[in-house]
Write a structure and sequence with these properties.
The complex is a heterodimer of chains A (944) and B (358). Chain A is α+β, with helices and mostly antiparallel strands. Helices cover 38% and strands 21% of the residues of chain A. Classes of the chains: A alpha+beta (944), B alpha+beta (358).
């Protein structure tokens, strides 16, 4: 068997060498998955490796390429849970201490054959398993997710297939994030992602541009197609590309429609132009409405723009209030205009500047220029703006002006419910006199009396009744043409393409024309009278013009709503799972009153599979902050098994409105290579450490109890990896490797009566020193940074952290201050306790008196104002003259987690405060009283 | 390329895009109308039904001869889409400004409801596509009178497949939820009490009254101006924004004294659903019950209705049976012969209908 293994090693060397020489010409990487072995050969390979492990004395490195293939195959099967667990289960005699050797073999593969070196944050974290997983190209559990992502982006991908693999991969990576943490990690390998996509969709393989071995690609496709939905998604994506290829519109700038280069459309930018309309809201009153287009197409332009739109609030000129982040990514939106907007500035503005967005809006984001705006009244009591300012006999219109309305003999004043605008209604008779026409022309309006063109069959998007239409690439526009006077022949032309002569029907009888589906772009369809019948007395214009803005369809995304009747928003827009769990995310849901939504949180594993779903509450719409806060507090207090929370790689907030739809808000989490999991068995609960980091630095595990939070107990690494039951009431577990810490506060629910719910930390008396102070600050960080598991974990941790804060000030300011602060806490800040605290300041009492008196006021100031006031007081009362006062105010912010200084900065801060305890205590008393009294009426003790 | 085509080719082009089979009735076919309206909903919503009608008429000018008849078919089709759940009528929602709360039609997001038979109703609209289903699944969608469903393949768990494709499943229980059973007298009494408890309404312009005393089966012909009517009536009036507003009004000599807006606050159904049921109860109390016709053919029992029914009732009949082409009535449902008695009981107890004499 050894000989066979030797032969396989030699075969793989030759294979990869040949592959490498081809790839080097194109500067392309080689992947271990491209080993070229079939299923039987792989099965034999596994057997041989198992056999060789049984042979003592056999050097593993002799067959390093075979091991790489084995490791890569495990990566192909990897589902995001535990790579090594599967690896070692399938290879029982493998020694876990050999793991780093595997990495060295992959590095050798990289150097020898130009194998891809994994990059990105995930690859840095998971320094060994990143190699086999990346070299597996597209692991099985990600295939469906990639197929679904491509299906959702199929129309957008069409125009990008002529780009480099890196560009394609980068685009998809940015657009398709959020399906699962594993998929997000995969997307970090942008160039690899691009190569796989081009291979799957464009058949760019070894044979064409040497990217991926066809055999490897075939295997991936075969596995992908085993899942029916993935097969359907891939099929439709390929179909969309095939159709685009047939039309010759794959890639940018290659569009050609209507024959001849003259018909090439103008470059199309996403629509950002606001549309105006009027709605009749009284017998003779009209309310103006502005409709802002859906900006998903803008978000598709670049990932940065997408992020910007997702996270930035906006406001609408002429309409009050600020709209929430992502508002324009839920379909088009309408607002009533209370004030007529200016025509020279964009209607939409964002609270934060963005050069690309500003550029887009500056060119097309305004309403049409005045001084008059023309609206055609329809049968639905709605008047739509006619951008071309073309009027027709027999129709009714509203004309809006900012200042002076044009004079119309047939006009009747009408009311527009909007400041800064006035309106007049004109009902044009079927036959216009020369005087009418003059009046209309004087108002800058054109009169159409000859040809009428309208979309027929399929209605056109954005049709204003006269000239503007919008279509999808997949649609076949048809138009009807009709004239009201004798015409013999029309001439129809798309852009500057060839003209088509069409024999006209009798007046009043439409002629129908059909265009082929057009590729994305802007087109102009013009219809002119080629030959008028004698006796025709048509008035200008003799030509009808229709503009066609053609865009690719925007596929629906599962978990989104698509209508603006129900909008769920989170603040922050994309909270992490831990932020959500700790109550730092705020949810609000807008929707029809009287309807209900159910909000749940779903916990997902690395592959996107559901671990658990927990209901937060049911809410009546609209759901505001208070309702969410109350429900979340109840949710937070419920006893839950922490296993799923700890084991989750990501999550989702699910807002379920039954037939209104469901909105899923992703909750991301950085999965650490070192992580704690909570395993529940029949008779016990085990806390276990998973270590996928495999770093050089040894792992160190410690435990700090709630009762003695500063005291460290070392735990055995192997025992912790096997799992152990934490001792009640629990405490802080820290796994430390190099400078990486993974902390978990475990709160055991077994308690003895009511007292058992509470914990009271204590601190062993040690001599005061700067080092001791630093140790306490570090402990605050460790406790604050920890994830939480178990009932009351949050409350117990809060208690520990609060006592650590007190203890730090005891170390810095001495026992007299410690006694004073304890008295403040115990007496709930009674006047007497405040007096005790003031006594600490001795000669600097006036300084402290002012701080006590104005603490609430200071707490409401902006930070820089508070700092200036503090500095001014310190200077006036000669507290630590000539020295920096800022660290005394910075320390509370550091302890509260608002800023996190480097180790050197922290040491310098403590060093400074050590010498100025009065200044330090001043900062502390201002913070304590500001927090405490800011929430209750002032007491007598606040007077100086 | 540009080509000159005849009207049939225009209709065929539209039908092909909409994925509907070309029928002899062309643009008047219910499946065509439903598909065209669903496409419109993708870019017109939120809007009022009148905006749908306007756009449909404008884009079919030249293809239709009787605009009024076309308009009536469109209105009927909109009602069917709302009843089945492709469109949602949202009341009391601020879509254009916090101060402007009104009723709108919005496109429901894609979803499905699994029927006991294993079939799945396909509901909802995605803005730019007829359905977000991939081609293989899309080709299996059957459209009957605008209602779309998929039949399962042998041994196929259709619901699971649709869920995997990202389509949301609506529970049968939630989708088929009905109001509680009440006698006609109790229902009318409760609305009478509510309307009389209202403060004076003042002048209500453009009011239309549903006059139950008119001896006609035509629902449309029962609507009239208040004239000199006195008593409590179902009424309708144009709304500032969105759809018509429904209500229950106390009139004296045609002058509204008090007005109760429908739906009632917190009611999950539409104003018209409440209004139609109350009118059926009023008619029953006046010993003038609205009628349905029951006949049978080789495939089952056919219920024929002459007035619109609340959407919860329509959904139930569509789930228990199938909606079929109406013949001399407003809508028809065919159910299995064994289900006829249960559905008659449902119509009698929930909608106070009686079977028409043979």
């Amino acid at each position: 068997m050894t000989a066979e293994l030797n032969a396989l090693q030699t075969r793989l060397e030759s294979h990869f060498l040949a592959l490498a020489s081809t790839r080097q010409q194109h500067l392309l990487p080689v992947f271990a998955f491209e080993h070229g072995l079939d299923a039987n050969e792989l099965s034999r390979l596994f057997d041989m490796l198992r056999f060789t492990l049984k042979m003592s004395g056999e050097r593993l490195s002799k067959h390093w390429l075979v091991w790489i293939v084995y490791a890569t195959e495990q990566g192909y099967d990897y589902d995001g849970d535990e790579y090594w667990h599967t690896f070692e289960r399938r290879m029982p005699l493998w020694d876990r201490n050999w793991r780093p050797i595997l990495r060295s073999w992959f590095v050798k593969f990289h150097r020898t054959f130009g194998g891809l070196r994994p990059v990105g944050r995930w690859a840095n974290f998971f320094s060994i398993i990143a190699w086999p997983v990346t070299h597996a190209l597209l692991p099985k559990d990600l295939q469906g997710q990639l197929a679904n992502a491509l299906y959702g982006l199929r129309y957008q991908l069409v125009s990008r297939l002529d780009q480099s693999a890196l560009e394609v991969g980068r685009y998809v990576a940015h657009m398709a994030r959020g399906r699962s943490s594993r998929f997000d990690n995969f997307l970090e390998q942008e160039e690899l992602v691009g190569r796989i996509i081009l291979g799957l969709l464009d058949q760019r393989t070894e044979e064409t541009d040497g990217a991926i071995l066809p055999q490897a690609l075939v295997r991936i496709v075969a596995d992908l197609e085993k899942a029916r939905n993935a097969r359907q998604w891939l099929h439709d994506t390929r179909k969309a590309i095939e159709i685009a290829k047939m039309r010759g519109t794959v890639g940018t700038g290659r569009a050609s429609v209507g024959g001849g280069s003259a018909a090439i459309p103008h470059t199309r930018l996403p629509k950002v132009r606001p549309a105006l309309s009027l709605r009749r809201t009284g017998p003779d009153a009209w309310t103006p409405i502005v409709e802002l287009p859906d900006l998903r197409a803008v978000a598709d332009l670049s990932p940065e723009l997408g992020e910007f739109l997702k996270r930035t609030r906006c406001s609408i000129a002429g309409s009050t209030g600020v709209r929430p982040p992502g508002w324009l990514l839920n379909g088009s939106q309408m607002r009533v205009l209370g004030t007529w907007p200016r025509a020279d500035v964009p209607v939409l503005s964002f609270t934060v500047a963005n050069a690309a967005m500003d550029h887009l809006l500056s060119s097309e984001g305004q309403i049409s220029s005045g001084p008059y705006w023309l609206f055609r009244i329809g049968s639905d009591e709605r008047a739509v703006e006619v951008l071309g300012r073309l009027v027709r006999p027999g129709q009714a219109y509203i004309i809006v002006a900012r200042d002076h309305l044009p004079p119309f003999a047939k006009g009747s004043p009408t009311q527009i419910l909007c400041q800064g605008a006035q309106a007049i209604r004109i009902d044009l008779p079927a036959a216009l006199t020369a005087a009418h026409i003059d009046e209309l022309r004087n108002a800058g309006l054109s009169v159409a009396q000859t040809i009428r063109i309208w979309p027929v069959g399929l209605a056109a998007r954005g049709w204003d009744g006269e000239g503007a239409t919008e279509w999808l690439e997949t649609e076949t526009p048809c138009f009807a043409i009709q004239q009201d006077h004798p015409v013999a022949e029309y001439e129809v032309r798309l852009g500057t393409g060839p003209a088509l002569k069409v024999t006209a029907q009798a007046p009043g009888v439409p002629t129908f024309i059909r265009l082929q589906p057009l590729s994305a772009g802007n087109y102009v369809l013009s219809i002119g009278v080629a030959k008028a019948l004698s006796g025709g007395t048509a008035l200008a214009p003799m030509e009808g013009v229709i503009s066609l803005a053609v865009r690719p369809p925007t596929p629906w995304v599962s978990g989104s709503i698509g209508h603006s009747g129900f909008i769920a928003m989170s603040e922050p827009p994309e909270p992490t799972l831990d932020e959500f769990w700790e109550g730092l995310a705020q949810l609000s849901v807008l929707g029809p009153a009287g309807r209900q939504v159910t909000v749940s949180v779903e916990l997902l594993d690395g592959s996107g599979g559901r671990l658990a779903i927990e209901q937060v509450g049911q809410f009546n719409l609209p759901m505001q902050e208070g309702a969410w806060r109350t429900a979340f507090t109840g949710f937070d207090r419920r006893e839950r098994d922490p296993w799923n929370y700890l084991g989750a790689s990501s999550g989702r907030i699910i807002v379920d409105g039954e037939d209104l739809g469901v909105v899923r808000i992703p909750l991301q989490r950085d999965v650490s290579p070192v992580r704690w999991v909570w395993r529940k068995t029949n008779d016990t609960t085990l806390l276990r450490l998973i270590d996928d980091h495999d770093g050089e630095a040894p792992m160190r595990i410690s435990f700090h109890s709630f009762e003695k939070p500063l005291e460290e107990a070392r735990l055995d690494v192997e025992m912790t990896e096997r799992g152990s039951e934490p001792v009640a009431p629990g405490g802080l577990f820290i796994a430390r490797s190099g400078d990486q810490n993974t902390n978990l506060v475990v709160s055991m629910s077994k308690v003895d009566g009511f007292q058992g719910l509470l914990i009271e930390p204590s601190f062993t008396s040690v001599p005061r020193s700067k080092e001791q102070a630093l140790a306490v600050v570090r402990a605050v960080f460790s406790w604050s940074d920890a994830r939480l598991a178990g009932g009351l974990a949050k409350e117990r941790r809060a208690r520990v952290v609060a006592r650590l804060h007190e203890h730090l000030y005891e170390v810095l300011c001495g026992p007299k201050w410690a006694n004073a602060e304890r008295a403040l806490r115990v007496s709930a800040f009674s006047d007497h306790s405040v007096e005790v605290a003031l006594q600490y300041f001795e000669k600097k009492r006036p300084f402290a008196l002012v701080l006590v008196r104005d603490a609430v006021k200071y707490s409401q100031f902006d930070e820089h104002v508070r700092q200036n006031e503090f500095a001014s007081l310190a200077h006036r009362y000669v507290v630590a003259p000539g020295t920096a006062w800022k660290p005394a105010l910075d320390l509370p912010a550091v302890l509260d987690g608002k800023v996190r200084p480097s180790e050197a900065e922290l040491a310098a801060m403590i060093d400074h405060l050590w010498d100025y305890p009065v200044l330090t205590a001043g900062g502390r008393i201002m913070q304590l009283l500001g927090q405490q009294r800011g929430t209750r009426p002032a007491t007598a003790g606040s007077s100086a | 390329m540009i080509e000159v085509v005849d009207p049939d080719a225009v209709v065929a082009t539209a039908s092909a895009y909409l994925g509907t089979e070309r029928e002899d009735s062309g643009v008047l076919a219910p499946s065509y109308l439903a598909a065209a309206l669903r496409r419109l909903a993708g870019f017109l919503c939120p809007c009022s039904p009148r905006t749908f009608v306007r756009n449909m008429i404008e884009s079919h000018r030249g293809l239709i001869t009787d605009e009024l008849a076309f308009e009536e078919l469109i209105e009927r089709s909109i009602e069917a889409l709302v009843a089945i759940g492709d469109l949602l009528e949202l009341s009391d929602v601020a879509l254009v400004g916090e101060q402007v709360r009104s009723t709108w039609l919005v496109a429901a997001p894609p979803a499905f409801v699994a029927r006991p038979s294993g079939n799945a109703f396909i509901l909802g609209i995605s803005a730019d596509e007829q359905t977000p289903l991939p081609t293989e699944m899309r080709t299996r969608v059957v459209s009957r009178l605008g209602i779309r469903y998929i039949e399962p393949l042998p041994d196929e768990d259709l619901a699971a497949t649709l869920r995997e494709l990202g389509i949301r499943e609506l529970s049968n229980a939630a989708w088929l939820k009905c109001p509680k059973t009440m006698s006609a007298a109790d229902l009318v009494a409760s609305y009478d009490a509510k309307v009389l408890g209202r403060s004076p309404s003042g002048e209500v312009p453009d009011l239309l009254v549903l006059d139950g005393s008119r001896k006609t089966r035509s629902y449309k012909r029962r609507w009239c101006k208040p004239g000199s009517l006195s008593g409590n009536f179902i009424v309708r009036r144009p709304q500032t924004f969105g759809s018509d507003l429904w209500g229950y009004a106390n009139l004296r000599d045609g002058v509204p004294l008090k007005l109760l807006d429908l739906p009632l606050p917190g009611d999950r159904w539409r104003g018209c659903d409440a209004a139609w049921r109350v009118q059926m109860a009023i008619d029953a109390l006046a010993l003038n019950c609205q009628e349905y016709r029951l006949r049978s053919d080789t495939l089952g029992a056919i219920f024929e209705l002459f007035s619109p029914i609340p959407k919860w009732a329509r959904r139930r009949l569509a789930v228990v049976g199938n909606e079929i082409d109406p013949n001399g009535c407003l809508m028809s449902f065919r159910v299995a012969p064994g289900e006829a008695a249960t559905e008659e009981k449902f119509l009698r107890e929930m909608l106070y209908l009686t079977r028409a004499a043979e």
